Design the sequence.
């Protein structure tokens, strides 16, 4: 049984659900699976076993509807585990509490010397007992969120609504997810209720490597294409984790270091540049309201999409 099954999410509203499940509005990106996994791996090396002495929150928006009493329950708990579900970063504490961070667009969890003065970007600081380091949640645009979960009714909570993890879903389940929807493939892959962890960057990169156009109806993907996409998705995510993610603008890991996977992007934010596979200029279109990068030569428009476009004229 999933160790997270008996938890209830407190800080939830409809607007948050739309953001988390469908992604940010056009013009904004957020850390995706590789960036969050990189933070988990970095923090796990440093923070496991540390006891939370004090939690200080400097932005009411960060906590949403979470009551202050939940904060007090966190203090005194020892960090016994760190994990990730989709784009959520989870701190498991010995006292039964769980901290659930969602970084959104500019959020970062940074280890800093405990004596370092606070800055106007800091939204939260965790101080630990008998340790000279603290954990800051830094968020310039204030879109990030923290939820505190406690053992509640089984099966309740926003985390339970997430689809299977993009790094873990097997090929059989992946093919079933595609076959059950007529939505454009990119829009489906961005929906966290269908598959968790993907965003604009890694969907574009995975589709390019698989040679599939992002407007392809999901249920029109052939078994061979589904196999290629599943393999490409896993390869892209694993390589991005090795590179500590993609630093497009704000993202840094828990030690303040940028990722380097952006150097390996084949299409994302390369509009007009030559495709690294065939040399054709990379194009930028919109799919489901999201900016999308693709190679028109490697990712041919499927016949069904062409026919639909002609019918609408």
Sequence:
């Amino acid at each position: 049984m999933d160790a997270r099954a008996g938890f209830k999410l407190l800080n939830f509203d409809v607007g948050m659900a739309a953001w988390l499940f469908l992604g940010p509005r056009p013009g904004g990106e957020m850390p995706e699976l590789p960036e969050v996994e990189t933070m988990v791996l970095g923090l796990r090396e440093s923070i496991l076993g540390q006891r939370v002495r004090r939690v200080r929150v400097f932005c009411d928006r960060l906590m949403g509807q979470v009551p202050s009493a939940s904060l007090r329950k966190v203090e005194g708990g020892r960090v016994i585990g760190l994990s990730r579900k989709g784009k959520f970063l989870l701190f498991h504490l010995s006292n039964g509490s769980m901290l659930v961070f969602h970084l959104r667009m500019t959020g970062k969890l940074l280890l800093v010397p405990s004596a370092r003065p606070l800055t106007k970007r800091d939204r939260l600081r965790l101080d630990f007992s008998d340790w000279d380091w603290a954990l800051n949640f830094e968020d310039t645009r204030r879109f990030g969120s923290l939820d505190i979960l406690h053992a509640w009714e089984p099966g309740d909570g926003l985390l339970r609504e997430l689809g299977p993890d993009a790094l873990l879903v097997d090929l059989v389940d992946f093919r079933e997810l595609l076959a059950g929807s007529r939505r454009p493939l990119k829009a489906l892959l961005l929906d966290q209720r269908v598959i968790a962890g993907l965003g604009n960057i890694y969907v574009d990169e995975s589709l390019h490597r698989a040679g599939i156009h992002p407007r392809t109806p999901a249920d029109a993907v052939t078994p061979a294409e589904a196999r290629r996409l599943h393999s490409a998705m896993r390869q892209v995510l694993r390589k991005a984790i090795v590179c500590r993610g993609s630093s497009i603008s704000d993202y840094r890991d828990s030690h303040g270091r940028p990722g380097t996977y952006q150097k390996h992007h084949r299409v994302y934010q390369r509009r007009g540049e030559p495709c690294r596979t065939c040399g054709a200029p990379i194009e930028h279109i919109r799919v489901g309201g999201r900016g999308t990068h693709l190679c028109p030569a490697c990712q041919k428009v499927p016949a069904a999409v062409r026919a639909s476009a002609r019918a609408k004229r």
Notes: The first strand starts at residue 7 and ends at 8.
